[in-house]
Design goal:
7 strands, about 25% strand, about 210 residues, alpha+beta, seven-stranded antiparallel β-sheet
Length: about 210
């Protein structure tokens, strides 16, 4: 069997076809009332960034619905909550401002895509609006919207993401602490059970005390 590598858009389109006119026209240069309503209801998004060399990364962002502030029809503000301090998304934005956002709403099979340019912003008034339990974030990501459009439900229908009958038992895999310790262990060694227990407890304590 011959493997074909597609390296041009012409070859890709010859195989896969052209988009419907409406699929092209639906891309808006700013946020309309439906985009705003979607963002206000969304507790979760995926943030796509890339560094100066184009190496890509996707990072989750989540909080109570409406945690992303819609400042106007061209600007969003995403609070930066405490994480693992790798700051892959933030350092990427410093060298390459182009970002892609994918918003989800539990129970909605359609999604919202937003593409634009980002910068890191420490605006006290905005940060205070994002405070939870008296804790304001140290900074946030301001996104200038270049393109926004609703995305159809095919991916979520195929995956049955919101179908409760498809939920998996977390016990199928080891704990997060064990998996990471095994991934980082020297070849031929296994993490000590007490160390695994301590790391798992540390992770849970971190969840309890440093979500904000």
């Amino acid at each position: 069997m011959t493997t074909t590598v597609y390296e041009t858009e012409e070859a890709l389109r010859a195989l896969m076809g052209q988009p419907m006119e409406l699929a092209v026209r639906k891309a808006l240069p700013a946020l309309d009332k439906y985009c705003r309503a979607f963002i206000e209801r969304s507790p979760f998004l995926s943030l796509g960034t890339a560094d100066a060399q184009g190496r890509a990364d996707v990072s989750p962002r989540g909080d109570r619905p409406g945690f992303v502030l819609v400042l106007d029809d061209r600007h969003l503000f995403i609070p930066e909550r405490p994480g693992n301090a790798r700051y892959d998304s933030l350092t990427n934005i410093l060298s390459n401002p182009w970002v892609g956002l994918l918003f989800f709403v539990p129970g909605y099979e359609d999604m919202l895509r937003v593409n634009g340019r980002a910068r890191l912003l420490g605006e006290p008034a905005l940060l205070e609006r994002c405070a939870v339990k008296g804790k304001a974030p140290r900074l946030g990501i301001e996104v200038t919207v270049d393109e926004a459009y609703l995305h159809c439900a095919k991916a979520l229908r195929r995956s049955k993401l919101w179908d409760p009958t498809t939920q998996r038992d977390r016990a199928e895999l080891p704990t997060l602490g064990r998996m990471i310790l095994e991934q980082t262990a020297a070849a031929g060694t296994a993490p000590d059970a007490e160390v695994v227990s301590n790391v798992d407890e540390l992770i849970e304590e971190n969840y309890r005390t440093t979500l904000y």
